[in-house]
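Database export, one record per block. Field names are fixed; values are copied verbatim from the stored entry.
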Amino acid sequence: MNTTTASRLSGFGRFIKWLLWTVVAIILLQQACAPYQLAAARDDLIDQLQEQRKARVMAMIHREESVSLFGVPVSTFIDIEDSEAVLRGIRSTPADQPIDFILHTPGGLVLAAEQIAHALLEHKGKVTVFVPHYAMSGGTLIALAADEIVMDPNAVLGPVDPQIDDMPAASIVAAVARKPPAQVSDEMLVRADVAAKARRQVASFVTQVLIKRLPRDKAAALALTLSEGQWTHDFPITVEAARQLGLPVSVDMPPLIYQLMDLYPQDGTQRPSVLYVPLRPRPAAAAGQGAAPGAATSRH
């Protein structure tokens, strides 16, 4: 091998090494910029919604996420930081300006949910809560404070019965009532006492929320239905069921809200369990042949 050939091979090797490092740098840069790009896209959609709806738009969206630390799965939920942020947003909104609140949550702390619900209830402008998928437990408590609840036709709300140490308060009270006091531990008696108080407190708060649009007797009856524990905590209250309960529910969901939800992808490294691809346009009818009577046309 002559000197010229060796020099060319060496130069080619350096070029390949430079190219590989460049590719790695680009990938790392894209990963570093991705969260900022995603946040900017969310802000842009919320700004579009505000212009379209002429309202202050706020979103509280919780995803069940898998974190990389030890691979421990965690769920995000309503906490005090959420209530602090929402209250700041409401304080910065003119009193008579409508508020659109986008809600996607499994629930969370009763205190935080009650703070948010109370602040929305006190707001003078119209409050609309949008539920594109689900708003369970504390999320339902917040939705009850709205003047209007807009749900996807397949979205659900849930009961607001309190939980004590991950156990339904109603079930704790019922279990203790079935045993003689001498056969119940002091710890469980204390839990039962706390559970009974929690049920009364939640029912009382929900009644005060519902009085805004319902007579007191009907508000108290609905509050009891939602909080007494007649259903499991994950029982789905559909659009039809919510309407039967007397809640002001519509299904006029703005398309931009679905687009916003697409910008909150589920984190994690596992493969997705649901896959689909966009539908291909249907071919036009052959020349001289009309569409079959009653045939549907595809829409987006």
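Remark 1: The longest strand covers residues 56-61.
Remark 2: The two ends are 65 Å apart (CA to CA).
End of record.
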